[in-house]
Amino acid sequence: MSSDCLFCKIVAGEIPVEFVYESDTVVAFRDISPQAPTHVLVIPRKHIATINDIAPEDEAVIGHMYTAAKEIAAAEGIAEDGYRTVMNCNEGAGQSVFHIHLHVLGGRPMTWPPG
Ligand code: AMP
Hints:
The chain is of the alpha+beta class. It has a single domain, classed as 2-Layer Sandwich (HIT family, subunit A). It is built from two helices and five strands.
């Protein structure tokens, strides 16, 4: 845990947030500023600041973030129409919280390329 990390505080229950999914290693909750009708963030319980900080021993939890995303998409009813998963790395890509998180966005048409 990183004591000054917002998402570590959410994992620790210091900031009350309703989890839409949780397991031993991952939790998910709705984005506070949703960019689509469904906008959920899937995060590891472990503090990993950016994609650049992912270690070989984190491979299982990174994979689990996607199986969680798949289950969340099914529960949200967006799995068949389609949804987007995004993980931004560092400021230049728009990362603003430095604890990795997989955005799961759906419920509206998506355009490509992203801005
Ligand atoms: P990124 O810009 O990729 O780092 O995404 C960070 C996301 O965290 C943004 O979409 C924010 O809206 C979201 N966010 C920030 N604070 C909270 C919070 N307290 N609860 C839920 N989502 C948050």
